[in-house]
Amino acid sequence: MVANRIPLYRQAQEQLKTFIQTHDLRSGDPLPPEAVLAQELGISRLSLREATNSLASLGVLQARHDRCF
User: Fold this and answer.
1) pLDDT tens-digit readout, 8-28
2) How far is CA 47 from the centre of its chain?
3) 4-9: Cβ within 8 A, 24+ apart
4) pTM for this one?
5) Where along the chain do its domains lie?
6) Which of 2, 41, 48, 50 is the most core-located residue (most Cβ within 10 A)?
7) Fold (CATH) for 8-68
Protein backbone atom coordinates (compact mmCIF):
# COMPACT_ATOMS: atom_id res chain seq x y z
CA MET A 1 0.00 0.00 0.00
CA VAL A 2 1.37 3.43 -0.93
CA ALA A 3 1.19 6.09 1.75
CA ASN A 4 -0.36 9.44 0.88
CA ARG A 5 2.58 11.84 0.57
CA ILE A 6 0.48 14.99 0.81
CA PRO A 7 1.11 16.63 4.22
CA LEU A 8 -1.81 16.35 6.64
CA TYR A 9 -2.28 20.10 6.89
CA ARG A 10 -2.59 20.28 3.07
CA GLN A 11 -5.18 17.51 3.12
CA ALA A 12 -6.94 19.43 5.91
CA GLN A 13 -6.87 22.60 3.77
CA GLU A 14 -8.73 20.80 1.00
CA GLN A 15 -11.22 19.33 3.47
CA LEU A 16 -11.81 22.78 4.94
CA LYS A 17 -12.31 24.35 1.50
CA THR A 18 -14.81 21.61 0.67
CA PHE A 19 -16.60 22.19 4.00
CA ILE A 20 -16.90 25.91 3.25
CA GLN A 21 -18.30 25.23 -0.23
CA THR A 22 -20.73 22.50 0.80
CA HIS A 23 -22.07 24.56 3.71
CA ASP A 24 -22.42 27.60 1.45
CA LEU A 25 -20.47 29.84 3.82
CA ARG A 26 -20.06 33.41 2.68
CA SER A 27 -17.53 36.09 3.52
CA GLY A 28 -17.98 37.04 7.17
CA ASP A 29 -19.69 33.79 8.16
CA PRO A 30 -17.96 32.20 11.15
CA LEU A 31 -16.66 28.66 11.07
CA PRO A 32 -17.87 26.24 13.75
CA PRO A 33 -15.74 26.00 16.90
CA GLU A 34 -12.38 24.33 16.33
CA ALA A 35 -13.20 21.17 18.31
CA VAL A 36 -16.52 20.69 16.48
CA LEU A 37 -15.02 21.33 13.05
CA ALA A 38 -12.04 19.02 13.66
CA GLN A 39 -14.38 16.24 14.75
CA GLU A 40 -16.69 16.79 11.76
CA LEU A 41 -13.74 16.70 9.34
CA GLY A 42 -12.18 13.73 11.13
CA ILE A 43 -8.85 15.49 11.68
CA SER A 44 -6.85 16.60 14.70
CA ARG A 45 -7.20 20.11 16.05
CA LEU A 46 -3.51 20.63 15.32
CA SER A 47 -3.99 19.77 11.63
CA LEU A 48 -7.03 22.03 11.53
CA ARG A 49 -5.06 24.90 13.11
CA GLU A 50 -2.25 24.47 10.59
CA ALA A 51 -4.79 24.44 7.75
CA THR A 52 -6.65 27.53 8.97
CA ASN A 53 -3.38 29.43 9.53
CA SER A 54 -2.20 28.51 6.06
CA LEU A 55 -5.52 29.49 4.45
CA ALA A 56 -5.50 32.77 6.40
CA SER A 57 -2.00 33.55 5.10
CA LEU A 58 -3.29 32.90 1.57
CA GLY A 59 -6.24 35.26 2.15
CA VAL A 60 -8.87 32.52 1.95
CA LEU A 61 -9.86 32.89 5.62
CA GLN A 62 -9.75 35.87 7.91
CA ALA A 63 -9.05 35.33 11.60
CA ARG A 64 -10.73 37.70 14.04
CA HIS A 65 -10.59 37.42 17.82
CA ASP A 66 -9.51 33.77 17.74
CA ARG A 67 -12.18 32.95 15.16
CA CYS A 68 -11.87 32.31 11.45
CA PHE A 69 -14.26 33.81 8.92
Assistant:
1) 889 999 999 999 999 988 888
2) 8
3) 8/43, 8/44, 8/47, 8/50, 9/47, 9/50, 9/51, 9/54
4) 0.77
5) 8-68
6) 48
7) Arc Repressor Mutant, subunit A (1.10.10)
For 32, residues 6+ apart whose C-beta sits below 8 A from its C-beta are 40
Q: Which amino acid is at 44?
A: S
Q: Give the Cα-Cα-Cα angle 8, 18, 50 (nearest 5 degrees).
A: 35
Q: Which residues pair with 63 in a beta bridge?
A: 68
Inter-residue contact 37 to 27 (CB < 8 Å): no
What are all long-range contacts of 39-45, with beta carbons under 8 Å and residues at least 24 apart?
41/12, 41/15, 41/16, 43/8, 43/11, 43/12, 43/15, 44/8
Cα separations in angstroms, 22 against 5, 10, 61: 26, 18, 16
